[in-house]
UniProtKB/TrEMBL annotation:
<keyword id="KW-1133">Transmembrane helix</keyword>
<keyword id="KW-0961">Cell wall biogenesis/degradation</keyword>
<keyword id="KW-0046">Antibiotic resistance</keyword>
<keyword id="KW-1003">Cell membrane</keyword>
<feature type="transmembrane region" description="Helical">
    <location>
        <begin position="279"/>
        <end position="299"/>
    </location>
</feature>
<feature type="transmembrane region" description="Helical">
    <location>
        <begin position="146"/>
        <end position="163"/>
    </location>
</feature>
<dbReference type="GO" id="GO:0009252">
    <property type="term" value="P:peptidoglycan biosynthetic process"/>
</dbReference>
<dbReference type="GO" id="GO:0005886">
    <property type="term" value="C:plasma membrane"/>
</dbReference>
<comment type="similarity">
    <text>Belongs to the UppP family.</text>
</comment>
<feature type="transmembrane region" description="Helical">
    <location>
        <begin position="6"/>
        <end position="30"/>
    </location>
</feature>
<dbReference type="GO" id="GO:0008360">
    <property type="term" value="P:regulation of cell shape"/>
</dbReference>
<keyword id="KW-0378">Hydrolase</keyword>
<keyword id="KW-0133">Cell shape</keyword>
<feature type="transmembrane region" description="Helical">
    <location>
        <begin position="246"/>
        <end position="267"/>
    </location>
</feature>
<protein>
    <recommendedName>
        <fullName>Undecaprenyl-diphosphatase</fullName>
        <ecNumber>3.6.1.27</ecNumber>
    </recommendedName>
</protein>
<dbReference type="Pfam" id="PF02673">
    <property type="entry name" value="BacA"/>
</dbReference>
<keyword id="KW-0573">Peptidoglycan synthesis</keyword>
Length: 301
């Protein structure tokens, strides 16, 4: 892989991760059409996603810090409740038969909107993680076939047409059910297929579940953080066995930084797109690129 290819792929990742046109699909098409070989499997793709993760953290840093703090508090309260449970079990055995036993009280775990937000993200991450882990090899193989991104881009176009006509709702964390979160997590897991837009798929799932439109964007982007970190761990655990040159490392870093900068701009753009319901142009674009990809596949047979 050359430095120019790394730069171009960083731009593609930054543009297409947050605009609903599928970053994985465009990266797969770019690699196929220009015969890009990274020699490190999906590592470069994961690092590009880390770049866009940095963009998410830059835009939503206040929310992410608050979610992190509340997450730690949830763990603390769970441990306190567990200690109280052990103590109460001991007291119930020791003081059996007494009229009054001084049991320790339990803390309410989900006692604010941000704590509910944390739990919703965790619930969404479960199906995403399972689908991503089980389907990792399938996704890698699908990325090498021109027809798969083509079909998935057409599916993305259909989802975007649905999102364009969907009124959405007014659900915020306190109103969102854990079933809603699980369904959105499934959508994110399926969207690992090249050509299925992660943001387009998850935002459509959120809107169909009645999420507030602005919160649907925030939820879609923030819920991607555990998924990206999980994918990075899966790839980096084999990093010691990979042969990576100094030039490769330079290309990877440059691509990641460019993806972060372009991604930051595109998140801001996406907020406007969702608010004004302007998915149609992206749906048409995905439909055209998908049909061209399928046509190209059969042309090269």
């Amino acid at each position: 892989m050359t430095l120019l290819q790394a730069v171009l792929m960083g731009i593609i990742q930054g543009l297409t991760e947050f605009l609903p046109v599928s970053s994985s699909g465009h990266l797969a098409l770019f690699k196929i059409l220009f015969h890009v070989e990274t020699d490190t499997g999906m590592l470069f793709d994961v690092l590009l996603h880390v770049g866009t993760l940095i963009a998410i953290c830059a835009v939503y840093y206040k929310d992410i810090v608050r979610l992190f703090v509340e997450g730690i508090c949830i763990v603390r309260d769970v441990l306190i409740n567990f200690a109280a449970l052990i103590k109460n079990l001991f007291l119930s055995i020791r003081d059996r038969g007494k009229d009054h036993v001084d049991y320790s009280p339990y803390r309410r775990i989900v006692n604010s909107s941000y704590r509910k937000f944390v739990v919703l993200i965790l619930v969404s991450t479960i199906p995403t993680g399972i689908i991503g882990f089980v389907g990792k090899d399938v996704v890698e193989q699908a990325s090498e076939l021109l027809i798969v991104p083509g079909i998935c881009l057409i599916a993305t176009a259909i989802l975007l047409f649905i999102a364009d006509r969907c009124k959405g709702g007014d659900k915020l964390p306190k109103d969102i059910t854990y079933t809603n979160a699980f369904v959105v997590g499934i959508a994110q897991g399926v969207a690992t297929l090249p050509g299925l837009s992660r943001s387009g798929t998850t935002i459509t799932a959120c809107l169909l579940s009645g999420f507030n439109r602005k919160f649907a964007v925030k939820y879609s982007f923030i819920m991607s953080i555990p998924a990206i970190l999980g994918a990075m761990v899966l790839e980096l655990k084999d990093f010691a066995d990979l042969s990576v040159s100094g030039m490769d490392i330079t290309c990877y870093i440059v691509g990641m930084v460019i993806a972060a900068v372009i991604g930051y701009i595109c998140i801001k753009t996406m907020l406007v797109i969702v608010r004004n319901r302007k998915f149609r142009i992206f749906a048409i674009y995905c439909l055209i690129v998908g049909l061209l990809s399928i046509g190209g596949f059969f042309y090269t047979l």
